[in-house]
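Extended Data, panel c. Modelled sequence:
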Amino acid sequence: MICLVFSSVSHLFACHSLKFTFFFWRLDYSGISIIIICSFFAPVYYSFCCQPHWCLLYLSSITIVGILVIITIFAPALTSGTFRSFRAVLFFAMGFSGVIPAAHAVSLYFHHPQVLVALVYEITMGLFVCCWSSVLRYKVSREMETRYI
């Protein structure tokens, strides 16, 4: 829900001034980071609820990585164009860090049919992330701006 609120506020107030624009687009990206972090919690929690050490490890690691990404978004030194690829790689790494707990859960519970059903959903979500990452690569390269402007 916070992602939608941040996105709505960003699109509503970003046109106010240049200073507001930078702040609100950062707020929008932090909302995207929060939704990526939160999308990990249910699958990881329910996959490893019988193994609290793994659950704590995976949930704390994605939370720490997400907080570092949000700090990177708001860091003034990292907002220049030279760090554009770095920020994109951070988002990409944060999104694909779910492969490790998913592979671990499948290796532990492969004989359960419920895991295979959940795996189909996770693979579908991974395919959407792959599509998103190709758009991210295209956006980072700024090919549209260099070709048509």
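The chain has seven helices and no strands. This feature is highlighted in the accompanying rendering.
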